[in-house]
Amino acid sequence: MSHDMTAAEKQAEAARHAVLHLEEITKDPMKVQEGFLLKLLDDNKDTEYGRKYRFSDIHSVEEYRQRVPVTTYDDYAPYIERMSEKGERDLITAYDLALYNKSSGSIGAPKRIPMTKKAIENFMMYNASYEAGILARRFGGSLASGRTISLTLSNPDLKFMADGVPFGSLSDTSTLQAKPFWTRIFTSPIAASFAVTGTDTRYLHARYALIDPAPTRIACSFMSFTLEFLRYIESNWEMLVDDIEKGTIDESIELPEDVRAELIKELVPDPARAKELHDIFSQGFDEPFVPKVWKNLKVISGAATGTFKKYAAKMQERYTGNIPISRRGVSASEGAFSVSIGLDSCDSVLLPDSVFFEFLPEGEEDISKLVTLDKLEKGKKYELYITNLSGFYRYSMKDVFLVTGMYNNTPTIEFQYRADRTVSIMGEKTTETAVRAAAEMTADRCGFELVESSMYPDIDDSRYVYILEIDKIPQELTYDMIRDTLEGCLAEVNPSMGDKVKKGICAPTGLLFSQPETFILYREMLQMHGYSVGQTKPVTVITNEFQRRFFLRMTDDFEEIKGLRAIKARA
């Protein structure tokens, strides 16, 4: 006897379907790719762009690659302006638009990345349903027994363009849909996840997560957010436990008065939970505390590959132990590119029915050398070009991937770095990954904790200038020891740069130290200007004048930083 499916049953069915669907499409990926591309071209043959490049006359992958040029965002900017400002349709896509996704980054004029309804449906299948299916296979329905510690920070201030399509962040609009039943599924209050200016969201996320003894999952956009959250608990546990015991919010916490009053009205003292937490934290932090504080926690979800792999490793080593990580795949406003092949795996498999893929071998500049996914070789790196469901054709993503293996007959990849953020003052070509690695190696060898780092390529003086936010500084450590170690590490990760410094072609590396929580302040400032904080990645390489001025202004003398850390340690 049939019955109408409940919302939960529909979600479970979508999850099962997504997992089975991936199995099928990865068996013959080029057949799927060709079918995807030819249907896309047929659907869009009557757009202005489709008529310009005669989509109706294209009947194969090779014809498409010969006729249609590679592109960048600037090629679409005039079309997007006509769409969003004048309401014109059928310019680059015939599909209905759902959103102009607001690109993350520095303050300025953000890009408007069109996202069609078809693209969002595809995105949600692979970024929500598929992960749900993988987790259901591992944990059954046990994840539903507790709430999620969501470290989402949303700024759903949508602007509607002339064509009636909203302009904002996809993550923010998705979060907004859950707002009516937020506290039933998440530990954080509305005031933390939909914060107004002047709200200490880190305190609220931590305070309310600690109250709940039984969450089953931590969810974040990037694993750096979870590491920051757990560091905050370690540094402020006494205040947090005291507030839980008394049912208060410490007076030092920055909150709008109306928000504070509303939250305090609902808080109640919980001395039993406070004692339990006090007993755990007072033992110190030599062992991971997360499994002790949240005994039912089963998984941590968020981007934890490529740039974020080191954050995940530090988090596991110090805070979470062996709790599995759902590392997710690679996605962007332009589409879902891959999904993780399993928990704790850094490999993710390409999605042949999500976008049409082309790849340029690393270091190659001849566009004619672009290859399709069936020509990828394990162990080699490639720069990504895509054709998507939202009107971008042979579009340069500037993302570089390492091919790690195969899943069924489809390549698996791991993100490496952004090609447009490769630093080259004198032809040395240092990737973001190498920039970050040099800072992390320095921290390991000098014995301090690297909270965050950034590097400014000082073209005027032909040198790199590192800005480090550090903690737990050994007493005997000096500025010169750190700078010399950094110079050596930089030469290891990029011998070309080391050689140029040695020969005097480039000046020795500069080193500055940021004030505490500089990188958090930068993210909060972006939020004040309407950017989606949940999608703001760490600034590994300073790429514009605004970032340069901000981070240089937030630096302190090393001895002052060291003295501050010593005072904090004694306290």
Any overview of this molecule?
It is a single chain. Helix 10 (201-211) packs across helix 11 (223-246) and helix 11 (223-246) crosses helix 13. The protein has a 6-stranded antiparallel beta sheet. Among the domains are: 120-326, no CATH class; 422-570. The protein contains 21 helices and 20 strands. It has 571 residues and is an alpha/beta fold. Helix content is 42%, strand content 18%.
Features:
single chain; 571 residues; alpha/beta; four-stranded mixed β-sheet; 20 strands; globular
- How many helices? The count is 21
**Biggest pleated-sheet summary:** 6 strands, antiparallel
Which consecutive residue ranges, at least 5 long each, have pLDDT under 50?
none
Overall geometry comes to: globular
The span between the termini is: 67 Å
* Integer average pLDDT: 91
Strand content: 15-25%
Strand order of the largest sheet: 11-12-16-15-14-13
Radius of gyration: 25 Å
Helix percent band: 40-55%
What structural category characterises the helix and strand content? alpha/beta
Q: Using DSSP, what is the number of strands? A: 20
